[in-house]
Predict the 3D structure of the following.
Amino acid sequence: MSLYLALIHYPVSNKNGEVVATSITNLDIHDLARSAKTFGAQGVFFVTPVPSQQWFARRIIVHWSKGVGAVYNPTRKVALELVRLVNDLAAVGEAIHTETGRAARFVATTAKERPNTVGFVELRPLIETTEDPYCLVFGTGWGLDPDLFEQMDFVLEPIRGPSNYNHLSVRAAVAIVLDRLMGRNT
Amino acid sequence: MSLYLALIHYPVSNKNGEVVATSITNLDIHDLARSAKTFGAQGVFFVTPVPSQQWFARRIIVHWSKGVGAVYNPTRKVALELVRLVNDLAAVGEAIHTETGRAARFVATTAKERPNTVGFVELRPLIETTEDPYCLVFGTGWGLDPDLFEQMDFVLEPIRGPSNYNHLSVRAAVAIVLDRLMGRNT
């Protein structure tokens, strides 16, 4: 079993449905890395083709995984070591193939209802029982560019609570998806 | 059934186990409010006795619930309207009593193993079947001041994944706890 995360900063939608690139944020790096480490994911890909964004993110990663931060807070170090920076989803697939020798199965996440989604209780045993690596793909901004869904093997159903409101932050959504697929709810 | 959240900024522990006050962060306000709204909580208390911190937080809340932000992003408005600022846990209890006419049952959360914890699968039906309001209490910094646990009715067991690493952000922990207690994992 192997599981990866990808957080897409391009191509994603903005409020008006246009394709944009969003900025990588410091807290997304920390929160996703810590959630990934807690739930046993092997890597977290931050996806953006913007060089200045990769430069910014790399400074944070180096600070906490090799610099002063690694000594100050070793639990951050082991989480931040999971983070990689890549240009696009193809590069995610290549990196996972290099590490595992297998093609990744990509799982899109979405807050909107879409056709042909897979449920959490269906997906969990698939991840547990196969040797194929799975990569959960999350969007920033107003969500993944619609064209990206054509590159996915699965679309995971939206997270639902008791209300019709489901505007979770990506940090909250990643945490819940990982817990539902990998956690032990006792 | 009624459920509330409280995020404690004082008294909490720092890295060395000393009692400190932490700063309220913009992103905690947004993330906790959005998670609370998604999972049907009635209110989110940010607890700090520091006036400048309450002033800072109030500016953010007003911006998104009544100011320019409320027009720009109405989904933030309805989430941020759940947020209240109070000095201490006693004030949380008073506010909940005023709203519900009943005494709140306080549930501490912790990342560390502690004696006499209640499990998620035990707590969920308690919340669902009683008319007493429940308030989930989360710490910032290195966690709730140990003395606070004496004021609690329950201590919720730590979130566990498949690894021994459980250094989740408070944003991730709140999301997972709400999902386990109120979500529909389908």
Chain B has one domain: 2-182. The interface with chain A takes residues 15, 27, 30-31, 34-35, 37-40, 73, 75-76, 78-79, 119-121, 157, 159-163, 165-169, 171-176, 178-180, 182-186 of chain B (CB under 8 Å). The longest helix of chain B spans residues 51-65. Chain B has a mean pLDDT of 95.
